[in-house]
Amino acid sequence: MSPTTREGSLSTPARVAGGSRLPAVLRSPTLQGFVFTAPLLLLFAAFVAYPMLSGLYAATDPDSYRAIFGDPVFRQTVWNTVWYVVVAVNVKLVLALLLSGILDYPFLSIRVLAALFLIPWAIPALPGILSFRWMLNSQWGIFNHLLTKLGFESVPWLAQHDTALGFVIIFHIWKYLPFWTIIFLAGRRAIPTELYEAAAIDGGGLVQNFFSITFPLLKSLYLICTLLSMVFTLGDFTVPWLLTGGAPGDTTHVLATLAYRYTFAMGRLEWGLSTFAVALPVTLLFIGMLMRWVKI
User: Which stretches of 141-247 are DSSP H helices?
Assistant: First the structure.
């Protein structure tokens, strides 16, 4: 018998015997999968599940809700959040849908315009917000400089509620409009060109094609983007906090920034968690509608 045959004849029984020493429970694919995923489950429990459950438990204190609902700043913040979400989401998505039609033209100038159009979304939020604050400065900002050159009085843009909250909404739209425009542009390019060719033969114009072909085929995408944008905007902290910080006089807070104020500026953790808990049902409603719409 050759060495190769002898080695093979010895290794096979040994391998079978070694495998048979393990109990059937330890050879279960379910148990082996659990062993491999146990470190990830422990990390998830330590850094996600435990903080979330602790926060929900701390937010069950009824005194916290009585305190925040009795706070006039909280009541103003709720209206600010409603205005912020409703105006920013709808204006942003309507403009994105319309601008995607312009960027769909196959011209070199349009491609250059598309590259420039992506700059607000590509740059970090902090430099953009600092630039906005500089332009809105009541003493040396470019907006007031132009107003004084035209003979008008300067306006304290960030020192009054209406204009401060308005520019928070404007910056949010300016920052995230390119992202949603690219999504709608991809949706437009998935529409078969034969539909537009047939409409052209029937004498359909640009507006008629939009309402009879483009929008009906993009309706589902538009609704999904609306729900996603509502979830993102409702939890937006960066833009309102860095642009106004709640000023003037804590009148431009949204729920995300007010929870930060309660927790870190006032040291009332339970108030901050209760503020998040107030927004949680609305967020879960949007997420549930989104999951049902896309059939997850």
Answer: 142-149, 161-189, 193-201, 206-209, 215-234, 238-243
